[in-house]
User: Fold this.
Amino acid sequence: MTVPDPPVAFKEWAAVCRALALGIQTVILRKGGIAEEGGTFRPEHPRFWLYPTYYHEPQVGGIRPEYFSLLTEAEADRPPAETVRLTHVAEVTAVQFLDSIDAALSLHSRHILAEAAVRKRFFYRNPGLYVIDVRIAVAGPIEIRECPAFAGCKTWVRLGNSLRSSSS
Assistant:
């Protein structure tokens, strides 16, 4: 798997990034961040860095109790303030839109999210959820300075020159 070009990252809870890296989780459940071209749903980027976020980590109810250790591990591996540690690249292998809550809940063996978190995402605004199958590869670690453009509740972050300057 090659490193994303242009360099983009997908923000996700650090515990979920860890589960993806370990192969415990094989799909990403998302409400948005999907573009439609030619009548086919796809992520905005077919290959991307996983960008671990810690802002939502206190929401322990978001993951199933048997995976709480991933929260602890992710926090122990947290980089210094104003630093982002990129270690894995995801490649999209399939995308599916689910319009049935039962279908969404039936995927529990492929992710670490609690049922309440899946339901919340599914019913947010209009019912439905995208399931993004991904293949994960080690591609780091690379540490970059967290800049203001990365802040906020957004899915995609353009790394631009941040990545190039840190890896040279």
The radius of gyration is 15 Å. The beta strands are 8-13, 27-30, 34-37, 40-43, 47-53, 83-98, 129-145, 156-158. Helices lie at 14-22, 68-76, 101-105, 115-123, 161-167.
